[in-house]
Every structure is written in structure tokens, then in C-alpha cells.
Design a protein that fits this description.
Blueprint: H1 2-32, H2 46-153
């Protein structure tokens, strides 16, 4: 009887182990993992809906922040543009005033140059007259000296 029991155990034990092993590897794994989706629709669970809602809220917040930052950047650019426009207008006005001042100064300088030229001509004429008078005076002085010398000799 012992021999029969050993033979039955030798055949039955591997058969039991193989059937148990095939169950856990084939059917057990399938029962643990979710079934693959039929078609293209994903499996919707409570967790997946919560994740989708959370992602939508985050996207909405991110989009609102980006729009707010874009609006602030646009407002800043507009302010800078207006400031540059004002500065440009101020510089243009200053340029116009400087150009008018330059033209006024040029005309004043031309008048001064004409006055200097006339003054130089007058000075030259006065020097010529002075030379002429000094020569005349020298000549007259020499004549008086000669006349006096002659008068003293006589």
C-alpha cells in the first residue's frame, strides 16, 4: 500500500502544482490587471475623473496667469511706448529750438563779422591818416627847425 501511495503522490503532486501554477500565471494575472479597453475608449474611474478635473483646473489657472502676465506686459510696453513718444516729441521740439538758435547766432555772427570788417577798415584808414599827419608834422617841424636855424643865423 505504501508503494501505491508513493506512485499516486508522485503523479498527483506535480499535476496539482502545474495546474496551480498555470492558474496564477494566466488567470490570476488577468484578474489583478484591468482588462484592456475595447476599442479606443479609456476606462473611466473616479480617480481618473478627479485627475482630469484637477488637470483642467490647473490648465485654467495657468492660462489665466499667462493672460494676466501678457496683459501686464502689454500694458508695460504701451507705457514705455508712450514715454518714448513723449521723449521723441520733446527732443524734436528741442531740435527745432536749437536750429532756430543756430540760425539766429549765425546771423548775429555775420553782423559781428561785418562790423569787425568795417572797424578794421576804419582802423586802417585812421592809421593811414595818422601816418600822414605824423609825416606832415615831421615835415613841418623840420621846416620850422630849418626856418628857426636860418633865423638864428641871420
Amino acid at each position: 500500500m505504501n508503494k501505491r501511495l508513493v506512485i499516486v503522490l508522485i503523479f498527483a503532486l506535480p499535476l496539482l502544482l502545474l495546474s496551480c501554477q498555470s492558474y496564477t500565471s494566466r488567470e490570476g494575472l488577468a484578474s489583478i490587471q484591468p482588462l484592456p479597453p475595447l476599442g479606443e475608449e479609456p476606462i473611466i474611474t473616479k480617480y481618473s475623473t478627479l485627475q482630469e478635473q484637477k488637470a483642467e483646473k490647473e490648465n485654467a489657472i495657468l492660462k489665466a496667469q499667462q493672460e494676466k502676465e501678457a496683459a501686464l506686459a502689454q500694458a508695460q510696453e504701451k507705457k514705455e511706448w508712450e514715454a518714448l513718444q513723449e521723449k521723441l516729441a520733446t527732443l524734436n521740439e528741442e531740435k527745432k529750438t536749437l536750429l532756430t538758435q543756430i540760425s539766429q547766432l549765425k546771423t548775429a555772427m555775420d553782423k559781428q563779422n561785418k562790423n569787425l570788417e568795417t572797424a578794421a577798415k576804419e582802423i586802417a584808414q585812421l592809421k593811414a591818416a595818422q601816418e600822414m599827419f605824423s609825416r606832415q608834422a615831421e615835415g613841418e617841424t623840420q621846416e620850422y627847425i630849418q626856418a628857426w636855424n636860418e633865423a638864428q643865423k641871420n
